[in-house]
Design brief:
The protein is mainly alpha-helical and 84 residues long. It contains 4 helices and no strands. Helix 1 packs parallel to helix 4, helix 2 (19-28) packs parallel to helix 4 and helix 3 (36-56) runs antiparallel to helix 4. The longest helix has 24 residues, at 59-82. It is elongated, with a radius of gyration of 14 Å.
Length: 84
């Protein structure tokens, strides 16, 4: 049971890890200090983790990484919106 809770907390922390970057880009109206390569690499990684979670049938892995992937899509869109 404790490991299940640790998994949920870990998933929440990593799932929303790029939200501060989105907020920073919005506040500064710039994506100058944000690495597109990092966003894309992390996006590819969480997409593959989502597929792996589907293979395992693990809801925590699936949900955490699917949400992370969507957040990264938003981050990439915001990146291009503020790119100068």
């Amino acid at each position: 049971m404790y490991w299940y809770l640790i998994g949920i907390v870990a998933a929440l922390l990593t799932t929303f890890g790029f939200v501060p970057q989105i907020i920073k880009m919005h506040k500064t109206r710039s994506s100058k200090d944000i690495s597109l390569v990092t966003l894309c690499q992390f996006g590819a990684g969480v997409f593959l983790w989502t597929l792996y979670g589907i293979h395992l049938g693990d809801t925590i892995i699936i949900m955490a990484n699917a949400i992370s992937f969507l957040i990264l899509i938003v981050a990439i869109c915001v990146y291009y919106y503020y790119k100068k």
